[in-house]
Write a sequence for this structure.
């Protein structure tokens, strides 16, 4: 019976074309879904390409049919096959007047073509026409296409129209026009540099959405040039303040947070503006403090804002109070069970540690937990934090951990990064050269030798050669001997990285026989082994031969008789006939050297001469006379490479230093009368009139209490709630189980020099919350070695750390102050009274509060934003009731009991099951259990 | 800036891929496929109950982060740079999914496969040129519905219903 039903439905679908598509398309998707292998899929797609190629050649294809062909082309290309044969049809479709077809055409074109494709030229004219269309949907489609298709050459063709659209009556169009302009700015800053004032102008647009969109380009502009936007600090602060005070229409709320994405963008901008600027930091400190108090840390988006606040505080010059609030927020993140929040906490810690170095101390156990977490992302973030807090007291432990982790991973990209970090830390903080050589050689080189920079190898060689720098020859020779010994030991291991072998050969050549412990024949035998074992690596061979030469030279110079081992002899003979001229030369030199007498050899290769400075005349001044002569006899003077490349006009689109728009050969306005260039010049005038903003009065009408309750009772709201539930629960709860899994053996601390070997690292760990009283002693020791204090209890730690750490009060003081208060340039927007705020000498909070008060009282001409949002003031009481109500209802829905009863009687389960059946039939996803996205809603 | 939006199913088949980064956009199709495969291989190797974040410099250049969310048979993936907030991006995926859910009433993978152009319409209302344009799913819905209505009007001879709800109503 069930089968009959499904067959019936399939038949019905086939004829009708379910999902609004034809049977052919359904069949295509179905067969690809059922494909068992990539080869089978490729075969299906190739035959589809053949079909489409044939069909597209047919004359008079109906438009509806054509639309479907194009969708099929897009699908094929998404699967990774070339659909270029059909591009032209997509381009043609954009010319159609029918909105559906036009949009399909634009969609296909934006997916098919990149900015530099030849066919773009054919679309520019259509875009120009569409930008002027009366139908704003057409305009939006064109703006969308602009963002993805316009290149540097074609920007001038559409720029005037886009600028016009900044004043379009529809806010959706204004928003997109701003984004398009932003995109132009990213692509070619010079092309829109005269239009930048427009962004400022749009900042006080009537619509908050447009204002929010303006923040994106402003963020980029401020990143490039902070100083010219300092005047906007108080405006941004006042916008942020008003957003947090819920003066925006309620529709901007997201999970009970008022316009969180706008808040985040504003915080990012404030972070830029407050960086190293004391007066700006003071202006924004009050609103930041408010945010910490107001943010709801139970929702994801609330935490996003909290994190952004932390980030902002780490950039500006914060007050001690703010710093404390940030530290509190971080500790909440770190204590959370969610891996996401832990990640953010570690990241925040890494940022704040620059300002107050002792903040990490109280979180040491949490940090160590993260270090042993099975989550790779979290682990890497924690290593980044450790990297930032390394000092000479903990470098050994940290580098040890890092190298262990480096050895355990396979990701070459990250391996390289962590190897270079190890080297950097070791070079900077190494407690002893002995340790440095051990770590860098034994660990980093052995396991990531091919990935590290060749400079590291050179540094290592120099270190061994120069020793401690002081005139302590005894220590130097000990160091060298230990290097030689450990090298000889490692050499026997198979498959060492080439760079490491080069270092080994060099060290053995220079110092192998220096102490007299090893005989020349022993060392030379080892070197021959290296050259034999890695016969395909010419660089290593070269190093080995040079090392041999040095060994023999030292022998000859000291008057001993040299007997060349048979294998060395055969190696030399082999190299004499080598294809590499370099190796040949080295071999010939070695052969020649063997025939010389002691005195000659000593002057050619003196003992331990690698440290002697060789003066290099970089300018090759000794050739000046020759050049002069050549120029006099008519030669061209030399032009350096840099100068030459400047002379070539590079048309690379992302070269930022183009200051003039390249004159494009194509005229896109060919069919119109040439326009007077008044538009851009008009737009570039400096003074921007502030429009009288009045949207809050009208925007507030629709969000009455009735609309809220109506929405709450609707079915959409019900389902959405479930979505939120899904969103919140699995990620926030699940990690409790993860934290109780035993740590990976690879990350055990058994390799620590200061920790007992093979102790409790395999014990299952209790969760962080419950283990406060009894903490793994090993972990404690690790914490102590990382953070430099004992971790038995907080008070203990504080007292013990007090001795060698700067007192908290001094540490949290802002590191540097900007003594010159920045005098803002004349305020274009005339927001508030910036002069009053920026010149503050007394208490900034009071001053600011007074400003806010006065602005809300007299409103009038001073504070534009105040006027903007002042209409909202009377409504605040009702909104707070609303939010309270919605919170109440929300919390009742959050209760799992009611939640399930709601879903079980929900109308969607049947539909979803039907859909599921259909999915199975279609074979899109044969292995899955229930492909409905929200399957756990169905219970 | 958002560099890419991707959706793929748990077997690694791309369901939607949109790149905003100039450099990635100029790559040939095969290279873009390689990126998608690379992302998938990283995602599929992640254990459950770990964070939704990844640093993905190796595929998308320096300072690239990735946020993903796994719903039933689909991965939703956002790739972006340091100028965006990870947690906010996670919520952006949520906005996208909520909107799709409203759009297709109980969205599933099949909807995404067959309503390719509508998917892009929705996405274009949320992310525009690599920047977050709109995060209110009601507003997005309004815009999308307006487009569909006006498309239907301009295409009055349409023989085929255009959305799943239409298909369902037809039966």
């Amino acid at each position: 019976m069930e089968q009959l039903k499904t067959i019936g439905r399939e038949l019905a679908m086939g004829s009708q074309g379910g999902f609004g598509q034809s049977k052919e398309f359904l069949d295509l998707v179905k067969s690809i879904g059922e494909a068992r292998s990539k080869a089978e899929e490729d075969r299906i797609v190739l035959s589809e390409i053949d079909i489409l190629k044939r069909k597209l050649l047919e004359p008079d294809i109906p438009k509806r049919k054509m639309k479907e062909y194009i969708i099929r082309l897009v699908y094929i290309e998404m699967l990774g096959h070339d659909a270029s044969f059909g591009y032209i049809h997509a381009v043609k479709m954009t010319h159609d007047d029918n909105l559906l077809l036009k949009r399909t055409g634009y969609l296909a074109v934006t997916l098919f073509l990149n900015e530099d494709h030849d066919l773009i030229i054919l679309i520019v004219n259509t875009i120009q026409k569409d930008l002027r269309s009366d139908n704003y949907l057409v305009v939006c489609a064109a703006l969308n296409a602009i963002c993805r298709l316009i290149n540097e050459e074609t920007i001038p063709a559409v720029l005037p129209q886009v600028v016009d659209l900044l004043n379009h009556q529809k806010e959706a169009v204004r928003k997109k026009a701003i984004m398009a302009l932003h995109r132009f700015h990213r692509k070619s800053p010079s092309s829109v540099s005269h239009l930048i004032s427009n962004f400022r102008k749009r900042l006080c647009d009537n619509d908050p959405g447009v204002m929010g969109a303006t923040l994106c380009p402003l963020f980029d502009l401020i990143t490039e040039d902070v100083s010219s936007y300092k005047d906007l600090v108080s405006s941004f602060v006042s916008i942020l303040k008003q957003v947090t005070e819920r003066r925006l229409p309620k529709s901007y709320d997201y999970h009970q947070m008022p316009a969180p994405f706008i808040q985040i963008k504003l915080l990012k901008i404030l972070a830029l503006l407050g960086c190293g600027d004391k007066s700006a930091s003071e202006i924004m400190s009050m609103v930041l403090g408010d945010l910490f108090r107001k943010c709801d840390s139970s929702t994801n988006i609330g935490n996003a804002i909290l994190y952004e606040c932390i980030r902002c505080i780490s950039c500006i010059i914060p007050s001690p109070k703010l710093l404390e609030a940030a530290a509190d927020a971080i500790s909440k993140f770190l204590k959370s069970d969610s891996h996401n929040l832990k990640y953010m906490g570690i990241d925040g810690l890494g940022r704040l540690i620059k300002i107050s170095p002792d903040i990490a101390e109280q979180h040491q156990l949490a940090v160590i937990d993260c270090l042993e977490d099975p989550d790779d992302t979290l682990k890497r973030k924690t290593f980044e934090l450790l990297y930032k807090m390394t000092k000479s007291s903990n470098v050994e432990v940290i580098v040890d951990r890092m190298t262990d982790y480096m050895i355990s991973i396979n990701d070459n990209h990250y391996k390289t990064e962590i190897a270079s970090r190890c080297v950097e830390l070791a070079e900077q903080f190494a407690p002893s050269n002995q340790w440095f050589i051990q770590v860098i050689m034994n660990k980093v080189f052995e396991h990531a030798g091919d990935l590290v920079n060749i400079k590291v190898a050179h540094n290592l060689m120099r270190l061994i050669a120069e020793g401690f720098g002081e005139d302590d020859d005894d220590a130097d020779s000990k160091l060298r001997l230990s290097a030689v010994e450990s090298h000889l030991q490692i050499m026997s291991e198979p498959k060492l990285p080439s760079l490491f072998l080069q270092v080994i050969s060099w060290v053995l050549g220079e110092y192998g026989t220096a102490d007299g412990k090893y005989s020349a024949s022993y060392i030379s035998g080892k070197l021959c082994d290296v050259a034999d074992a890695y016969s395909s690596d010419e660089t290593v061979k070269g190093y080995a031969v040079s090392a041999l030469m040095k060994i023999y030279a030292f022998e000859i110079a000291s008057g001993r008789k040299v007997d060349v081992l048979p294998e060395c002899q055969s190696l030399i003979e082999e190299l004499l006939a080598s294809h590499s001229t370099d190796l040949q030369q080295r071999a010939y030199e070695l052969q020649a050297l063997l025939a010389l007498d002691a005195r000659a050899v000593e002057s050619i290769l003196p003992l331990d001469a690698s440290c002697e400075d060789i003066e290099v005349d970089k300018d090759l001044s000794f050739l000046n006379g020759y050049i002069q002569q050549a120029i006099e006899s008519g030669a061209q003077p030399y032009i350096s490479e840099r100068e030459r490349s400047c002379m070539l006009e590079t048309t690379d689109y992302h070269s930022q230093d183009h200051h003039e728009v390249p004159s494009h050969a194509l005229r896109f306005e060919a069919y119109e009368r040439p326009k007077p260039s008044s538009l851009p010049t008009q737009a570039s005038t400096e003074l921007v009139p502030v429009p009288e903003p009045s949207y809050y009065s009208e925007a507030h009408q629709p969000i009455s209490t009735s609309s809220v309750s109506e929405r709450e009772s609707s079915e959409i709201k019900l389902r959405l709630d479930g979505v939120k539930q899904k969103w919140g629960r699995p990620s926030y709860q699940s990690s409790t189980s993860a934290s109780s899994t035993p740590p990976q053996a690879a990350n055990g601390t058994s390799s620590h020099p200061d920790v007992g070997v093979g102790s409790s690292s395999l014990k299952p760990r209790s969760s962080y919350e419950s283990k406060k009283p009894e903490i793994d002693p090993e972990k404690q020791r690790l914490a102590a070695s990382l953070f430099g204090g004992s971790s038995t209890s907080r008070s203990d730690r504080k007292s013990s750390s007090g001795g060698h750490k700067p007192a908290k009060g001094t540490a949290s003081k802002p590191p540097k102050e900007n003594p010159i208060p920045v005098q803002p340039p004349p305020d274009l927007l005339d927001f508030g009274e910036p002069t009053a705020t920026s010149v503050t000498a007394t208490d900034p909070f009071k001053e600011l509060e007074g400003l806010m008060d006065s602005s809300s009282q007299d409103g009038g001409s001073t504070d534009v934003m105040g006027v903007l949002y002042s209409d909202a003031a009377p409504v605040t009481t009702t909104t707070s009731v609303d939010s309270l109500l919605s919170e109440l209802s929300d919390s009742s829905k959050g209760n799992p009991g009611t939640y399930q009863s709601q879903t079980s009687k929900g109308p969607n389960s049947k539909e979803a099951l039907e859909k599921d059946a259909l999915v199975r039939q279609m074979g899109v996803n044969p292995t899955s259990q229930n492909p409905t996205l929200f399957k756990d809603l169905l219970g | 800036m958002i560099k890419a939006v991707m959706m793929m199913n748990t077997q690694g088949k791309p369901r939607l891929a949109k790149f905003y980064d100039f450099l990635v956009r100029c790559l040939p199709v095969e290279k873009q496929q390689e990126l998608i495969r690379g992302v998938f291989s990283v995602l599929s190797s992640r254990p459950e109950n770990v964070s939704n974040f990844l640093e993905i410099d190796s595929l998308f250049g320096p300072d690239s982060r990735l946020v993903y969310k796994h719903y039933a048979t689909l991965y939703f993936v956002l790739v972006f740079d340091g100028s965006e907030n990870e947690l906010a991006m996670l919520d952006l995926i949520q906005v996208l999914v909520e909107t799709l859910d409203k759009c297709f009433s109980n969205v599933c993978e099949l909807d995404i496969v067959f309503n390719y152009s509508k998917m892009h319409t929705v996405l274009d209302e949320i992310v525009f040129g690599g920047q977050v344009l709109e995060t209110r799913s009601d507003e997005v819905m309004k815009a999308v519905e307006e487009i569909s209505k006006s498309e239907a009007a301009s295409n009055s001879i349409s023989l085929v219903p255009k959305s799943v709800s239409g298909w369902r109503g037809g039966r």
User: Anything to note?
Assistant: The longest strand of chain A covers residues 253-254.
